TrEMBL record:
The keyword Transmembrane helix applies. Pfam families: VanZ. InterPro entries: VanZ-like (IPR006976). Keywords: Membrane, Transmembrane, Transmembrane helix. Residues 49-146 form the VanZ-like domain. Signal peptide: none annotated. It comes from Leucobacter albus. This is VanZ family protein. The chain crosses the membrane at residues 12-32, 39-59, 79-96, 101-121, 133-153.
Amino acid sequence: MLATLLVGYPWLAPLAFIALLAAGPALGRWLAPRRSLTLGLLVATVALVCAIVFFPTGRTMAVECTLSWMLPLPTRPEPFANVVLFVPLGYLTALLTRRPVVAAIAAIGASACIEATQALLPALGRSCTTNDLFANALGAIIGAALGAIGLALHRGRAPEQARA
């Protein structure tokens, strides 16, 4: 389903990535003091990620995980979409916890759990690949870094607000 969409609209993932990079720091500055909203967005993001990665495809796969690596470039829609999928997860977790490194590690751990679940539940028709794990990890790290920038911008602004 997602792969079909990405093949039909190969510009979608790169456009989303550019939007996340451009808006991330300023949005993070705004979201940092709004923890309830950030939590709500994180819950919605986790639900969306779960819906995408656990939606049955109708195929039956063998219980296995493929070892592979393909550089997730914008010209490769599916691997690049895996990067984009995990940017918001790392980003919102970093903003919520105020710990970007922990957020990146948690998001990478979530990706490993997703890949293991896909391998252990062949009825989902999903493939487990290290390529997905690496691309998701890259997205989680980028997201956590954007969150760190947003937090730094927020901290830099906080003293001025106190004086006003």
